[in-house]
């Protein structure tokens, strides 16, 4: 398990990283928890690794123009410890605490997780439920991609060639907004065999992000339509759970069959809805 030979470059700015990507068959290195195993198995053979983990403009959490802005290179541990984020959306810190182990949380970054787009990753469900936008930058400048449009398939996203995620932008929630992230974790990896993020605003709008069930994370729009503006009572929750996955095609692998995954999705959607109720 020895990687193929590659060069290493440390970028000090986002523009430096974008330039390095455009000049070679490079891969970005942030936390590295997904990239390094791929290098060892030679599933990925970049000519260069561009280290972006110390670019200051990609770090930190602040409020700007009515949005919570999380820098793409902000680690899970930093997200868990941020007082402002915990005061606005405490379920994000709680959900982050379920990811991996302490080493993963100390080095893993939110931008790296979203760019990798593992169908069993936790962050995709949470950014979907918070109605986030993904801010990216490339040779043509900056643009925003709604989280609902960002995940396009199995380990694939709407990122164009040589683009870098720079920040995640979440609308500041109205006071009284509640949220939760519930998952059935694979015991060894702690990835989500199924994960459900649910958010309810004081006005009754409900948003639900699902991960682990299909080849990409998605919004459970059928369930949202049933629940939004209505009481989260047993009848409405039952109807939402039945409608949520009617047209989905669950994955089947060595960890769980498609039938079992769909069963888990219904169980954990119900748990999430009862929590925000």
TrEMBL record:
Q: Which SMART domains match?
A: CO_deh_flav_C (SM01092)
Top-rank lineage group of the source organism: Bacteria
For the FAD-binding PCMH-type domain, which residue ranges apply? Answer: 1-175
GO terms for MF: FAD binding; oxidoreductase activity
Check the record and name the SUPFAM superfamilies matching this protein: CO dehydrogenase flavoprotein C-terminal domain-like, FAD-binding/transporter-associated domain-like
UniProt keyword annotation of Oxidoreductase present: yes
The residues the entry assigns to the signal sequence are none
Which controlled-vocabulary keywords does the entry list?
FAD, Flavoprotein, Oxidoreductase
Q: Does the keyword Ion transport apply?
A: no
Question: What PANTHER family does the annotation carry?
Answer: XANTHINE DEHYDROGENASE SUBUNIT C-RELATED
Q: What is this protein called?
A: Carbon monoxide dehydrogenase
Which organism is this protein's natural source?
A: Flavihumibacter solisilvae
Q: Lineage of the source organism? A: Bacteria, Pseudomonadati, Bacteroidota, Chitinophagia, Chitinophagales
């Amino acid at each position: 398990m020895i990687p193929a030979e590659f060069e290493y470059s440390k970028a000090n700015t986002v523009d430096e990283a974008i330039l390095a990507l455009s000049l070679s068959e490079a891969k970005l290195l942030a936390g590295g928890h997904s990239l390094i195993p791929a290098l060892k198995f030679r599933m990925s053979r970049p000519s260069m690794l561009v280290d972006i983990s110390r670019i200051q403009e990609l770090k930190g959490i602040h409020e700007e123009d009515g949005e919570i802005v999380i820098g793409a290179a902000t680690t899970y541990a930093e997200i868990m410890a941020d007082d402002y984020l915990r005061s606005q959306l405490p379920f994000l810190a709680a959900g982050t605490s379920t990811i991996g182990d302490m080493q993963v949380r100390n080095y893993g970054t939110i931008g790296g997780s979203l760019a990798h787009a593992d169908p069993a990753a936790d962050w995709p469900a949470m950014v979907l439920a918070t109605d986030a936008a993904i801010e990216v930058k490339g040779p043509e400048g900056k643009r925003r991609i709604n989280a609902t449009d960002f995940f396009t398939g199995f380990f694939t996203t709407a990122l164009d060639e040589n683009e870098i995620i720079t920040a995640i932008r979440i609308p500041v929630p109205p006071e009284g907004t509640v949220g939760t992230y519930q998952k059935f974790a694979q015991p060894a990896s702690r990835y989500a065999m199924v994960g459900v993020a649910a958010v309810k605003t004081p006005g009754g709008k409900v948003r639900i992000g699902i991960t682990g069930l299909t080849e990409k994370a998605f919004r459970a729009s059928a369930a949202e339509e049933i629940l939004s503006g209505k009481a989260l009572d047993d009848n409405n929750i039952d109807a939402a759970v039945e409608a949520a996955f009617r047209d989905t095609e669950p994955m089947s692998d060595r960890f769980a069959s498609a039938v079992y995954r769909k069963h888990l999705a219904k169980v954990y959607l119900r748990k999430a809805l009862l929590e925000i109720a």
